[in-house]
UniProtKB/TrEMBL annotation:
UniProt keyword annotation of Transmembrane helix present: yes
UniProt lineage: Eukaryota, Viridiplantae, Streptophyta, Embryophyta, Tracheophyta
Gene from which the chain derives: LOC104730690
Assigned keywords, A-Z: Membrane, Transmembrane, Transmembrane helix
Keyword Transmembrane: yes
Protein name in UniProt: Uncharacterized protein LOC104730690
Annotated TM spans: 114-133
Length: 134
């Protein structure tokens, strides 16, 4: 049995997408060129096994697309936080208005209690005067 046939390397996602960081065999890929086109390859490429070969421009485009996606996600998060901050300010303003309304109601209730006490006092005085006359 040939040694090349006996080795099976599992697919590795970091090799498949973007800049390759590790070859299927575990070696670190390097950048070289062929006919004025750059590509990543493995230093062990001559051993007959399956090794990384990825065009540099393809890897760059994949990395740019990934960074665009990350930027979009971050922009959505910033927009959400800005919206949340605007809603928070609106909520604070509503809370201040509510506190003012509650304070006005309390003032009215204090005045109402005072007038109720005056009315009760006057009724008691009239009742006392009536009993004294009778």
């Amino acid at each position: 049995m040939d040694e090349a046939e006996s080795r099976q390397y599992p697919p590795q996602p970091e090799v498949e997408h973007g800049f390759p960081k590790e070859c299927y065999c575990g070696a670190k890929p390097f950048l070289t060129n062929c006919y004025n086109r750059r590509f990543f390859t493995c230093p062990n490429v001559d051993d007959g096994e399956m090794h990384i070969h990825k065009w540099w421009d393809v890897a760059v485009m994949e990395e740019l697309r990934d960074s665009d996606r990350r930027y979009e996600v971050m922009a959505e998060k910033v927009d959400y936080l800005t919206l949340f901050n605007d809603e928070s300010n609106a909520t604070e303003q509503k809370l201040v208005r509510l506190e003012n309304v509650v304070n006005e109601i309390c003032k009215e209730n204090k005045l109402r209690k005072f007038t109720d006490l005056l009315v009760v006092g006057v009724i008691i005085i009239f009742t006392c005067i009536l009993f004294m006359l009778v």
